[in-house]
């Protein structure tokens, strides 16, 4: 009995030490920052909140059906074979007047606008997990480029702190190439713990508008949640982003359930030349925090988007649907509603105003 108790106590101690001291879990919010966040309309009782009630069901029936679906399995939740990757076009001096975007799978994007290079949610790791050796692996196994090939990055723009969007290993590898980190409230603390100079971090609340070296940005609402550990649910803010250059304006949805914020953003900042809209890892049981694909199309229309690039799919399995369901459903709904959709391969660079890729490469 003593041996059993000692083992249990030892395991609890190890877990506690890992959760509190392993840097991958990020930082805890300081008292000073908590006091500052109390000025935010989106902060209440030491937590950030959504604009509207956003319940994430954890009742017995929901848990039972999720366990059932997990045990049942589905071989089509991951690709059965490899798929083609695009050839990344890194920024060149002669293309400074062009707006280009390269999608790296899931929600990671490289955006070139007005001669500046931005990375959006640059998750370049092998798995969206604090311990990638045991997480669900990236479909493509390798990225369509080597991180050493990345040019200097003018700004990294983050939507929230979940592992599939903010990756410890990726930040450690790219941080010395980044001139500025632009993040929602609280996320900067994680970056500081990982060695990013605090002077290179901007934190913003919803509806903040600001200029970054000639590019106009606005931190806009999303309907989601945050957290990297067992005790930090909603300790940091989540958001979407408006990014406007002199010739083009884009909208990056981050992660979000459908809600009235899309209409508000469209009324205030639309129309948009390009939208990057999440369309995958959905389920009716958690529709409050991840849109269904048909809602993705509606959200694109709400923000008054022109061309949509679906994101948050084709890299990791985080939902129970088949891996191609998101793009099949979103493109079907888009056709029915006369919405133009671009479907670049992972790593394929798209130039705004040129012919947009529409090949069904996933097939």
From TrEMBL:
Residues 118-313 form the Metallo-beta-lactamase domain. GO terms for cellular component: cytoplasm. InterPro entries: Metallo-B-lactamas, NAPE-PLD, RibonucZ/Hydroxyglut_hydro. It comes from Tumebacillus permanentifrigoris. GO terms for molecular function: N-acylphosphatidylethanolamine-specific phospholipase D activity; zinc ion binding. Gene3D superfamilies: Ribonuclease Z/Hydroxyacylglutathione hydrolase-like. The lineage of its organism: Bacteria, Bacillati, Bacillota, Bacilli, Bacillales. PANTHER family: N-ACYL-PHOSPHATIDYLETHANOLAMINE-HYDROLYZING PHOSPHOLIPASE D. This is L-ascorbate metabolism protein UlaG (Beta-lactamase superfamily). Pfam families: Lactamase_B_2 (PF12706).
